[in-house]
Amino acid sequence: MKFIFSLCFILVINIISAFANDGYKLWLQYYPIENPSAWQLSVLKNHKIHGDSETISIIKNELELAASGMVSPSKHPTKKDKKNTPNTLLIAKHQDLGLEVLPNTLINQLVDDGYAIFLDKKSGQIIVTAKSDIGLLYGTFRLLQMIQIGDSVPEEGIFQSPKITHRVLNHWDNLDRTVERGYSGFSIWNWHRLPRHIDQQYHDYARANASIGINGTVLTNVNANSLVLTPSYLEKVKALADVFRPYGIKVYLTARFSSPIEIGKLPTADPLDEDVQAWWKEKAKEIYKHIPDFGGFVVKADSEGQPGPHNYKRSQADGANMLAEALEPFGGIVMWRAFVYSEHTPDDRHKQAYNEFKPLDGKFKGNVIVQVKNGAIDFQPREPFHPMFGAMPQTPLMMEFQITQEYLGHDTHLAFLAPLFEEVLKEDTFTNGAGSEVAKVIDGSLHNHKLTAMAGVANIGSDRNWTGHHFHQANWYAYGKMAWAPYISSAEIAEEWLKLTFTTDKNFVGPIQKMMLASREMVVNYMTPLGLHHIMAESHHYGPGPWVTGGRRADWTATYYHQASETGIGFDRTKTGSNALEQYAEQIQKLWGDVETIPEEHLLWFHHLPWSHKLQNGKSLWDNIAIHYQKGVDEAKANVKLWETVQGKIDHERFAHVHSFLKIQAEEAVWWKDACLTYFSQFSKMSLPDGVEEPTHDLEYYKSIRPRHVPGI
Ligand code: GCV
Asked: Which residue numbers delimit the Alpha glucuronidase N-terminal domain (predicted)?
């Protein structure tokens, strides 16, 4: 009877999941494990959890949920199982363990939200322990992930502390629920209904973030609205903070620099004005009254029309320090963005942030961290790492990655971003000689900073599957994993995410993992190969626009960046040009300054070269550009075919959704290739090499394509 019941259970679950899965459950699917092993069963079925707090209740619920999804209710370890694999699960804070556990020293070394998972041979139990309830929550999620993907607890145990303290999402969400550069629906924050209505999605959001170690959320757009700092909005923010707290997530807000004028009725927002300083101090006090663990402020100042200290001829440090002083008594921090540039500064945009911030090194208060985008321009499909990394040893710097794909095809183009994140984190800044990777700047180890942080611009919206493309959930997942462990590999993340989200079937995971890992390079190829950048359509940034020129700001055009003419293409950032290269360490200047030694992927970022210039493969620059575009197109088309081969291995709903998006991507890869090659060929005047398909239309046709109502502007 029991057997038949179990069989029916598995059958029903499989049938349901084969057809309907809208992706809402993300990587927390907890789908049935085909043949659960004795240890998986005993851990899921027999657990003891010590403690009593909201977080502990969340842990209990999570275990129940996972157990009911992964194994049939009637399945229990047999007596024989119990004899051979006695381990049951004990979850308890280190101080409550009450066991003579061996790895005490390793556990003592954990930071507050770190965790340990190990087999205690004496008691035969799997133990999840930590110094805090949040650490226990992280450890539980880790263990459940291992159970789902079929990993066992290694002999030596797992002892994990995050390398970075503040692992935050930056929502570019506006109070009217539009999302700047957000492509998966509206903002999930329903400000109108808050604080009276708490949507279940807020809990689910917090749970998903906690499951990958994210511990902070900046609720509002960096193009900020001071309204969020008014009393009625602070009530709403408090409501969200209360939901997130037991999941270990702090809220942060973006502070509009001119708030003292706009909502404080002061005549100025000058950071050195005493009334302004007092206003921010009072505001901080008010915020902390509502939200005692408020994380702090993120500030975009003096950039793209946002107000800032420049308005009063003050420095970025003056602005940041004023806010830092207001937050200091409460333990808050200021994440001050380095994305500062102006069309009125007559210098290469690449150089402006470095030029402004480097002289301020060491001038920021202790609770300020400077938030630097991964590259010096703006989240392009590929950028060399930002020269500020490594250049400000006395100032904590944090990384800002963009998870939302403003420049990588928005929500419909598959681009697994972990390889982009990994590439930047691994770059050697050479600040303290070889081995001074960007990851070491970020985790504080290179310059001995305790204040460490990483930000990811969220790709989350009100779409049922959260991120538009199902595979873009992987970018949220990858960001969380890398913020916790910036040295982890993309391949590992992709495999884990696929197994948690879809299936452990190796005939699915193997080929699709490869597809994911190659996808970002594929996008680089059909959009901006060989160091080209910023050649997208203007304003909405969707589709190609190498012809974009003129207008109010040269630094928002494509022609400013590609500099294509009959003599060649590329931005000369060497000594003969803007000399942005000078902002990097000497070793890099030497390597990248020479067209023979610069990695070809950065070639046109730093060099302006004739179309006939020969690359390493002996072919001309023009031929190489064309070949890269074609490669991107071929891969995008091949992905559609590859995806078709996995039909039936996962549920139909997600299969069909991804299939349709991959087809859009393949079509738009052709659009990118044809538009860019048609445009550039008017300068190169060279024919396309063998194997590169001729564009089907003339330039006017491509220029006339004007997508309307593109979301996320
Ligand atoms: C939030 C780019 C985007 C803007 C964004 C800005 C930023 O310029 O196009 O939408 O504004 O970056 O990071 O501040």
From this structure: 26-143
